[in-house]
Amino acid sequence: MRATRATKALLALVESQPGVQWSVAEVQARLQKMGVEVNRVTSYRLLDRLAAAGKLVKSVDAERLTRYALRADAQEPLQVRYECTDCHSVQSLEERAGDAATARVNQAMAQYLQVLQEQGLAPEQTELRLQGLCADCKHDPDKS
Q: What is the pTM (predicted TM-score) of this model?
């Protein structure tokens, strides 16, 4: 992958906010604010290439919108995210449940991945996405 101005700006953007899952439109708008003009197709290609290279994780949210996030530490067997079905905010398990819950989920997933590997499978990415209302949307009477 060539280290173009757009590629460097995109990497700087996602690395500056590692917990954010970016849509193509959000990336494109933010890059334009940074003075880097890229069209929609180029934005898609850059994001897809970075995902294929293992730098980003590509996922689809509840609205079927493709999002990209900085890949977490490779030592973690699982990325657990909670997505609000109303405001579409995404939070990681580490942020909401704390270290003890994260350790238990990661331990269980490591055991599960070990069984898969023993069966000859080699998963490269494992993500658990929970969906529902976030605390703000749940308590906002206008969103009911």
A: 0.63
